[in-house]
């Protein structure tokens, strides 16, 4: 298992590590690998039944069913998108109304200074634009990305989670977590290459 | 994964494996990452030579635009009565091509069409590059591209007035810029997991750094995937009406005017169908070349290409139907100007453009009724090219023939492109191909994470069945 590789921890650096919850004295969790998504889901369900609550998986693609097996709640992204999207609608309508009817009223072709009909295209586009930014930035925000480092990367096969392995994680802040026992639990549900991963 | 659907063996002919040859997750990673890591290009000279040719054409674009800015837009052939000619034709042509990318990535995603996974990434990239090419024309048609920010409602003291939100032209500014931005966001979101794959395989410092930064620290956590999938679904959901709105608004540029031949309510659906038709043709041209040159036969199968042929047949026929409807309505309206415009399109001075359009867009794609034609690579390649020619002519016919006969015969004219017109358009093709070649070489051109999802799915679907021979 990796140690801190001889890095001297002084002042600021130690504080950063403390805030990120990493360091030689910390344990991130126990990780094991599966080679098929349905094995992962089955194992995840069993581990969950053992009473663990702080579980995660690392997979090369979205494995359907793993969320329910591990008890991962629904994404809140929809609420973010609809609120920001409606801000886009309001921005567009206010812009068109203020610009055309208040700040610079100019009669063109006898058309009204403001009307909802000719506002539809721009209003729609700004709603979509705001929603798209909300969806992408909201997704990154909820996921805590971008991020330079994560303790799970210390797992010796973590690079295969973006290739062909399906990893199951029991995190150390789980009340039921016990390094040695959790390793045995993961092995008992069929995980390979089980390791205790330092923070 | 809990529901196992057994495939009826008789259906194998109709629904063959999308990822054949027993390829596993790691094979998919290897094959696609290998292109970026430089293993596929055993003879890289072929690639670099092509790139230098397209790069040369790109230089031509730079030269033409410099000449235009230095001289004035008079170097283009636009003149009264044809104030919009090649530039707007090219603008609509490129924007239309982009639409297939969004259709494949968003609409087929919502319809759960699994075959899209092999082609969506390159189609989305194509969208971005096509929008970039399209943007050049209106931007330079302004004559002073450095004042392009005047198009947006940004307060500035040189202008001292606001945009007219009652004009379809400002709607178009919003539609196209939103479309470009959202397509880029959608494309990048789809890339994140694959960028992480490349990062984790990186053997050189440069690749480690570049992909490390681009992947934003993605590690494939199940919690992240849940937010990611929800965000991706929302993006697909908002991109679908977006793509329909963009070509609708482009068609408003014409339909909201009072020019005979333009002032018709059929334009929005007709433009959208045409856009998808031309876009699919362009995706097909690019994919046939990519499949051949990068040996992607196992990932882009005949099944994928055949499905695209079917979509081209449908959209091509919709376009043909729209041509017929336009003619019928011109007669049925009883409006003399309207009737004249349409007869003049078919039999007037631009008859050659009209009949090129009809043969390329309506007649030739009918060959796709035959399975032998839909599964023949040379046939579909040629048809994809004729379709793009035909769709370019469609925009030319709509724009130029409607303008060249004004209400007063004293204002009649005939448009001929100048050499600058032609070289500028050729130049944008160079820009498009250069960007696409760079993309195919330096970024994962097939969505690995999504194809792996299909691999997992097919492991269930084809359980206990022998592998289908390729």
Describe the structure concisely.
The complex is a heterodimer of chains A (199) and B (470). Chain A is 47% helix and 13% strand.
> What name does the CATH topology of the largest domain in chain A carry?
Alpha-Beta Plaits
Which structural class fits the helix and strand makeup of chain A? Answer: alpha+beta
| Annotation field: number of helices of chain A | 6
- Count the domains of chain A: 2
| CATH fold description of chain B | Formate dehydrogenase/DMSO reductase fold
- What is the percent of helical residues of chain A? 40-55%
Oligomer: heterodimer
What is the average per-residue confidence, as pLDDT of chain B, rounded to a whole number?
87
Low-pLDDT runs of chain B:
1-5, 466-470
Radius of gyration of chain B: 24 Å
Overall strand count of chain B: 0
Give the overall form of chain B.
globular
- Architecture of chain B, CATH level 2? Up-down Bundle
- Principal-axis shape of chain A: elongated
Superfamily (CATH H level) name of chain B: Formate dehydrogenase/DMSO reductase domain
**Known CATH architecture of the largest domain in chain A:** 2-Layer Sandwich
Order of helices and strands of chain A: HEHEHHHEHE
End-to-end distance of chain A: 11 Å
